[in-house]
Structure of Fe-S cluster assembly protein HesB:
Amino acid sequence: MTTQERALRIDELLCAEYGAPFVPFSFRDPLSELVSALLSHRTKNAVTRAAFLRLTETFPTWEEVVAAPTEAVEAAIAAVTYPEVKGPRIQEALRRVKEGNGGALNLDFLAEWPVREARDWLEAIPGVGAKTSAAVLNFSGLRRPALVVDTHHQRVAQRLGIVPARASIDKASKILQEYLPAEWDGQRVYDSHQGFMRHGQRVCHWREPDCERCVVRQLCDFGRKG
């Protein structure tokens, strides 16, 4: 069995274990998803949601966010970690989008682009890495087949041995994306992320993985050693 075949078999088992297909948690437009993702770094989901809501209540349009004093944007998102970094970063990201889209503040045009080109374009924006670019494309209403890899997903993949043990999230994301069949749509790719993420949250814990409960233990390098 090749590593790709093993990865896809693991994916199948995890999706079955956790009840795929999963209902998407977000139906935002892609630009809103970009802003939310930039807010979310090292911040709990509930805090991110509250900060996003306050930002959009304070500035009802993204044009207003761009034009606002940076201090006012920072104040609106004060609940997140590092608002003094994220405020300017969000404004710069919005400017980059506007400049790259003929003056229009939206990312709807990415619906027609090849996924790799869309991700490269997004990742040229300061502060946007592999996880954020994939989230913009897959978690938003675009629902493109871009695989999001978070720390849970990364840890599970490393222990399984389907990515190198020292692979960064960006490197793991690239490897795992390449394993996926080209015909998978955005929902199927979303299911893959959710299966790995839930396994990391519920069984393959950071400190003490519960290998006795693991449905993929026989396919796992770490589990077989234990």
Summary: The chain is about 60% helix and 0% strand. The mean pLDDT is 97. The CA atoms of residues 13 and 224 lie 17 Å apart.
